[in-house]
Amino acid sequence: MDRIDGTNSKTLYDYANPEIDVLLKHSVRTQLESLLKTSISVEQRLVVLQQSFVEAMTLVLSEITAPHTQLVKTFENMYDQAVLSMAVAGLSQEQLTHQYISATGLIMSPYNCKHTIKDIYRIKGYARGLDKAIQGKLKNKPSINVLYPACGPFAPLLLPLLSYYKETQTYKPSQIQVTLVDIQPGAILTLKQLVSDLQLEEYISLIEEADASIFEPENAIDLLVLEAMQHGFTKEGQLSIAKHLVKYLSLDGWMIPQNVSVKGMMVVGEIEFNQQWKTQEFSHSSNVANEAQQDRVELGEILKINKSTLLEMQELELEGGIKVIPANQIVLPKGVEDMSKRIFAVYAHIETFAQEEVGQYDSGITHPRPDNSVYIDLKPKDIEHTHFVASSGDTIQFYYQLTGLPGFVPVKVQESI
């Protein structure tokens, strides 16, 4: 097993010249600016890094909602400092940029994953929920085991929270032990560097390079923290990973998120995706226009994912070894005059824990995803095998495909009468 050893052959001063390394070659402007700051001492860098993580969580956990502009500035600072640790980790070009499709979904490169740490409202919803879950568990147990699979290079849903706990002395390492798992070698190298830089080694029992969909933890898990999804609940392996790991939860173990509800709707694309955002500073559930919500034709829940449903899910294996999960049926409503002009879209609502959530448009993972292969009350001129055609009044059975390109497959149950 690959345990933390806290060693790294590169030091900050390897970059202070500055040396043009592979991260520099593949950087956006913010990273270039961050790398140029490496003239500060190691001690100064670590102080600034640790403070940036604590400051972000202080704002997130406060009962007073911070202004969006303040959150943006604070999270950008945390991102900049985390990228410095990635630079010091010395990833090769291959380790930094390798991205591929596995048997269960897209495996994003460490380079592309790093942006998650500045996804404000995703982290806020998870961190607040996870904080409440940890409080709840430690009321009845002296210590807990937390598993965070597919955590990426920065483990953004947990490392900032642990930094806050350490700084405020809220919880000691003897109370929380964390296992971090990721399949990407570059993510593992960065994690080790970042954990060391944040001085969180005592909270981390294991950092393991492994496929989360087959990883077997040594101990029962009290909290399973998982976010491996994209908008419309497609592309990444959230369901496959959750379905595999849920059985390792202790009898009273909890999943974070506690519940994910995936729903479908028919929308006018111009209203939903353009007009309602023209006057808004940023996309967020609190900024969704009432007119746009009223214009939607909600179809209902397609799939619910929580501990109970995961334990009960049955797989169907089709020819060629393709596996699918039967989801829900919906009936397409009648009487919608402009149904043929509407777009089918899928969106997820995420309840992390104890009424904390990530709502529509709060994050990229909850943005509604339009599906232009679905035609309702409209037949395309040239039907392709990827097109799905149905009519108002039809009953639709949804399946979720567990392949390298996971996503929903609608099947018509009956013709409209």
* Structural class estimated from helices and strands: alpha/beta
Shape: globular
Which strands sit side by side, in order, in the main sheet?
A: 5-4-3-6-7
**How many helices?**
13
- Number-wise, the strands total 18
Q: Which segments are poorly predicted (pLDDT under 50) over 5 or more consecutive residues?
A: 1-30
User: What is the share of helical residues?
Assistant: 25-40%
Strand content: 15-25%
The average pLDDT value, as a whole number, equals 89
The major sheet is characterized as: 5 strands, parallel
Distance between the termini: 60 Å
Radius of gyration: 22 Å
Give an account of the 3D structure.
The chain has helices at residues 22-25, 29-35, 42-61, 68-89, 93-97, 110-113, 120-138, 159-168, 185-197, 238-245, 269-273, 290-295, 307-312, and strands spanning 100-101, 106-107, 144-149, 176-182, 204-209, 221-225, 249-256, 259-267, 297-305, 316-317, 323-331, 343-353, 356-358, 369-371, 374-376, 388-390, 395-402, 407-414. Helix 3 (42-61) runs antiparallel to helix 4. The protein contains 13 helices and 18 strands. The strands form five sheets. It has a five-stranded parallel sheet, with helices on one face. Strands 8, 9, 12, 13 and 14 form a five-stranded antiparallel sheet that branches. A four-stranded antiparallel sheet has the order 10-11-17-18, with no helix packed on it. It has 417 residues and is α/β, with parallel strands linked by helices. Helix content is 31%, strand content 25%. Mean pLDDT is 89; it is low at 1-30. The N and C termini lie far apart (60 Å).
